[in-house]
From TrEMBL:
It comes from Cytobacillus dafuensis (Bacillus dafuensis). This is DUF2624 domain-containing protein.
């Protein structure tokens, strides 16, 4: 199971805005292209573990500062879908 976590975390840490929009569409999460760009720029290069609830919560709070609380809730919902 750890290998899947590593793959998912790697993908999130290197995600582009286009990929984020694709996943958002696939999981019915509503974000704009501009928000996806800002979020992807923030996530890129960080060593984030979305399977750690504390770390994911911290990231979602930062996303709320960047793109607003509603978008952060949507992105959190997307992250939760990735961890299932």
């Amino acid at each position: 199971m750890k290998i899947f976590e590593n793959i998912i975390n790697y993908k999130i840490n290197n995600m582009t805005a286009t990929e984020l929009l694709k996943y958002a569409s696939q999981f019915q999460v509503s974000i704009t292209k501009q928000q996806a760009t800002k979020i992807a720029e923030y996530l890129r290069g960080k060593q984030i573990n979305i399977f750690d609830d504390t770390e994911r919560s911290k990231i979602v709070k930062e996303i709320a500062k960047i793109a607003g609380p509603e978008t952060a809730r949507e992105v959190n919902r997307l992250f939760i879908q990735f961890t299932k």
